[in-house]
Design brief:
- The complex is a heterodimer of chains A (363) and B (314).
- Chain A is mainly alpha-helical.
- Helix content of chain A is 71%, strand content 3%.
- Chain A is built from 21 helices and two strands.
- Chain A starts with a helix and ends with a helix.
- Chain B is elongated and about 65 Å long.
- The chains are: A mainly alpha (363), B mainly alpha (314).
Chain lengths: 363, 314
């Protein structure tokens, strides 16, 4: 492709030295260019298309490489055949249709939707960044409830925010929706996790450091008994009164002591023993080691086949934690995935979206 | 509306502190002087006096009062001198210590305060007791009683007037089903009573009454319930529907001829004197054969009586 760029610039410089003339190759040299392009190695063409497709994020990655798109728009001006070739090289997004005497590659609706989502990533991040944290949390919670998405976001907001921030989010929810968060959770969640979720979002935990080792031991033992009995009877721990009471009312330092003693007494962590009960595992992770939880969420957004919610988690985590525990998240990410978070974001995101994320993550 | 009266020209907190010290000195305490000052100051002024007293005399006013006064008067004055939110936090904590007998107090605090006041009380609880009210309530109860109390104490109700009448009708049906079937399947009932806004609940209970020609409290099953759940539920419903009527009834019961319940009198009057005692008094008079002041005059005595009367604005 280099020689094409060289050609264009040498033409324009000769034109410029004569008189102020529009910088565009003369008709004859343009034809020459087309001949050269037809003969250019197929690999270079495919590369150019691939890069553009990547810019449009038709091939994984998050966000849109706005600069590459603009550059292609400029380079291929008045060369509709270039765009045709681009469309033809992507049968997944454009399908050939014939009718009315001409062939056209029409855009797949699914691809248009995908494109809209990718173009919107930067906009969403910017709007969320500008919002008050309490309003953000209230809106996320409302969205999850009213679209019946998996409740992980509720668990995340309820368990990782400071007590006064969760309260603030609940106040914002009143102002936005004229209902309380807990009444909507209680009304809309009708499965086994309802009691736990209502308990978690209603919590106004003590935030001091006082911890009773004795109480932690007592509750660790009681939890172990509950786990044992549930595995014998097949009952769901998420509906167990003791489990819900402890997770929904104790302070975070108290819970961490309880989790620590649980592991000492039983060899396994409570998280491991809650296997098969995703809601409970998420709650324990968020209460015990939020940085690790957030690191995993971010990594989930980069995986192949990540769905809409998994990708949305990237924006949510970075925007909401940028001024909270981002340093701890970076450390946890490096520890767990062996790579710097900033490198992973640079690799997997594009354009303004990528730049915004990196700015929020910091060095 | 409050019933306490504060003089137009209030002495400075230093003057009040000095006057209190004078009342403590010598043989015995000048209780009248203590009442004359403290019963006529609002919570902000009382706090200033406490700080000034401690600064001037290097001792805690509360501890001095506790040693100078005694009996029902001392208990009432102790609660009175506290900041209003701290006061209810202390009362709640005392109730959690014998929650099977005193759960009613938890219900009153959870339901009769505004949502913002309940948050302030819980915040005060954190500071004083280094744990949350929710964990103390939850750890000491079980079953339906725990579910109800925990929901009432944890909720942060929407405080506005928005009401969804369709929802009120459908939830009135759910409530009716629940009370009809005894006390076994009350999850939905507890959900509704424990999360909906007060305006929404009032609308639901009106729909209930229209549909079934009886009030929700009358429709509750009437057996003895050793767990206390039914009584707690009835208390919650009464507080939510008409707090003034509820407290008026509590006061009537506490001033009956068969024996005065000073602890209850203290609790209700001290908490409400600077809030809505006027409305409670009016509700009291509607159903009783005398005014609240007359009942207090008759059923209590000594400095305790003088203090209560001062709080009631006499």
């Amino acid at each position: 492709m280099q020689h094409l760029v060289g050609q264009a610039s040498s033409n324009s410089s000769s034109a410029a030295s004569a008189s102020p003339v529009r910088l565009r190759p003369s008709p004859s040299s343009r034809r020459d260019q087309q001949h050269r392009e037809r003969d250019a190695p197929a690999a270079a063409m495919a590369d150019e298309h691939q890069e553009l497709a990547r810019a449009f994020s038709g091939m994984g990655g998050l966000g849109v490489d706005e600069a590459a798109v603009v550059s292609a728009v400029g380079r291929w001006r008045r060369q509709p055949e270039k765009r045709t070739q681009f469309r033809r090289s992507f049968p997944g997004f454009f399908t050939a249709t014939s009718g009315g005497g001409g062939v056209m590659e029409r855009c797949e609706d699914e691809y248009v939707r995908q494109l809209e989502a990718e173009f919107a990533r930067f906009k969403d991040a910017a709007v969320l960044w500008a919002m008050h944290p309490w309003e953000r949390d209230a809106r996320w919670a409302h969205h999850v409830l009213h679209k019946a998405h998996p409740p992980a976001v509720l668990v995340e907001v309820a368990c990782t925010r400071a007590a006064d921030d969760l309260l603030g989010a609940r106040r914002a929810y009143h102002a936005l929706y004229h209902r309380s968060l807990e009444e909507d959770v209680a009304y809309r969640v009708r499965d086994a996790s309802a009691a736990l979720l209502v308990g978690l979002v209603s919590a106004y935990r003590y935030e001091g450091t006082r911890v009773s080792e004795e109480l932690a031991k007592e509750e660790a033992k009681a939890l172990a008994a509950a786990v044992k009995s549930a595995s014998a009877t097949g009952a769901k721990l998420v509906q167990n009164d003791l489990v819900v009471r402890v997770l929904a009312t104790r302070s975070k330092p108290q819970l961490r002591a309880t989790f620590r003693i649980y592991k000492e007494l039983n060899g396994k962590t409570l998280e491991e023993d809650f296997a098969g009960e995703l809601c409970l595992q998420e709650a324990v992770k968020c209460l015990d080691s939020p940085a690790r939880y957030f690191g995993e969420l971010i990594n989930g957004a980069f995986k192949d086949g990540a769905d809409k919610q998994a990708k949305a988690a990237l924006t949510r985590v970075v925007v909401s934690r940028s001024e909270a525990d981002m340093e701890e998240i970076k450390d946890a990410y490096a520890k767990q995935f062996g790579a710097k978070l900033t490198d992973a974001v640079a690799k997997n995101a594009h354009g303004h979206y990528k730049d915004a994320l990196l700015a929020m993550i910091g060095k | 509306m409050a019933t306490i009266t504060v003089p137009q020209a209030v002495p400075s907190s230093a003057e009040d502190a000095a006057a209190l010290m004078k009342a403590f000195q010598g043989w015995g305490t000048d209780e009248k002087a203590v009442i004359a000052i403290l019963a006529h100051r609002n919570s902000f002024q009382r706090k200033e006096i406490m700080l000034e007293y401690e600064e001037m005399y290097n001792e805690s006013l509360i501890q001095r009062l506790q040693s100078e006064l005694s009996g029902d008067f001392e208990r009432a004055m102790y609660y009175w001198i506290l900041d209003p939110m701290e006061r209810q936090a202390v009362m709640a904590n005392a109730a959690t210590k014998c929650i099977q007998e005193e759960y009613k107090i938890i219900v009153e605090i959870a339901c009769a305060n505004s949502p913002a006041e309940l948050v302030a009380i819980k915040k005060a609880y954190h500071v004083i007791y280094k744990c949350s009210l929710e964990e103390d309530v939850a750890a000491r109860t079980r079953g339906n009683l725990r579910s109800l109390l925990l929901a009432l104490v944890s909720t942060y109700r929407y405080d506005g007037d928005d009401v969804d009448m369709g929802l009120a009708k459908s939830e009135a049906k759910i409530v009716h089903e629940a009370v009809r079937n005894g006390t076994t399947d009350h999850e939905e009932l507890i959900r509704i009573v424990g999360t909906r806004s007060k305006a929404q609940l009032k609308a639901t209970f009106i729909c209930f009454r229209e549909e079934h020609s009886t009030s929700i409290t009358k429709a509750l099953p009437h057996g003895t319930d050793r767990t206390g759940y039914l009584h707690a539920l009835r208390t919650a419903l009464r507080c939510i529907v008409d707090g003034n009527k509820y407290f008026a009834k509590v006061l009537r019961t506490a001033t009956r001829d068969s024996g005065t319940d000073e602890d209850t009198l203290t609790r209700v009057i001290v908490v409400h004197a600077e809030k809505d005692m006027k409305d409670i008094s009016a509700a009291f008079q509607k159903r009783a054969s005398c005014t609240l002041q007359q009942a207090i005059e008759k059923e209590t005595s000594g400095d305790y009586r003088s203090f209560l009367m001062a709080l009631l604005g006499s």
